[in-house]
Specification:
single chain; 201 residues; mainly beta; Dna Ligase, domain 1; Thrombin, subunit H; four-stranded antiparallel β-sheet; 3 helices; 13 strands; 13% helix
């Protein structure tokens, strides 16, 4: 079993999250490949293992654009001490490493028990990252996605996915890393074409 991350709040309450509670969601771009979403802890591991160079690029919400790693001072400092790591479930490496592109697409995610509205922030043929104020899904939940407008992808789309990552930041929203399942050829072709046009270089 892959590791799990517990996040301990200042009041001592311990919460299990799919990624890590209050950890920012990061992406990096190295060797013509964009990787993410990932937690800061995962990014730090990549840095410590030499996967990233100071000249490579990183991005997180709040940055106006990609930044050179060597200029991001917060990654040179020790991680926040209120986060405690212990074993947890995470997305398959192959799914996280598929070519991705940033996107801003309105979506409704739902299953038999819950519904959430939000925006897709990035997408690949293997998965996508959903940001919402509705913290209603759990790890391994199966969800259906309705892209109501489908502007960036050409037209509205209906997709199926499984929750493989989860992160919360400052209690304002929750992010879900979703692994796509049973992607039909027409949808796959539209996603591939979008990524070709919009992937960061």
């Amino acid at each position: 079993m892959t590791p799990m991350v517990f996040a301990k709040r200042k009041n001592g309450e311990k919460v299990v999250m799919g990624a890590a509670l209050n950890e920012r969601v990061w992406f990096f771009y190295s060797k013509e490949e964009q990787v993410g979403p990932m937690t800061e802890s995962e990014l730090r591991v990549a840095i410590s293992e030499g996967t990233l160079k100071d000249s490579d690029y990183v991005y997180r919400e709040g940055f106006p654009d990609w930044r050179v790693l060597g200029e991001v001072t917060e990654l040179r400092q020790p991680p926040q001490s209120h986060l405690v790591s212990v074993p947890i479930s995470e997305a398959p490496t192959a799914a996280r490493r598929a070519p991705r592109a940033m996107i801003q697409e309105l979506v409704v995610a739902h299953n038999d028990n819950n519904i959430a509205t939000g925006h897709i922030k990035n997408i690949s043929v293997s998965g996508l990252y959903l940001e919402t104020e509705d913290a209603v899904f759990k790890m391994n939940d199966e969800v259906k996605l309705t892209l109501k407008e489908g502007k960036g992808l050409g037209k509205p789309m209906h997709l199926k996915a499984v929750v493989v990552r989860q992160a919360r930041e400052n209690g304002l929203h929750v992010g879900y890393g979703l692994e796509l399942k049973g992607l039909d050829e027409a949808s796959r072709a539209r996603i591939v074409e979008y990524i070709k046009r919009h992937q960061s270089h």
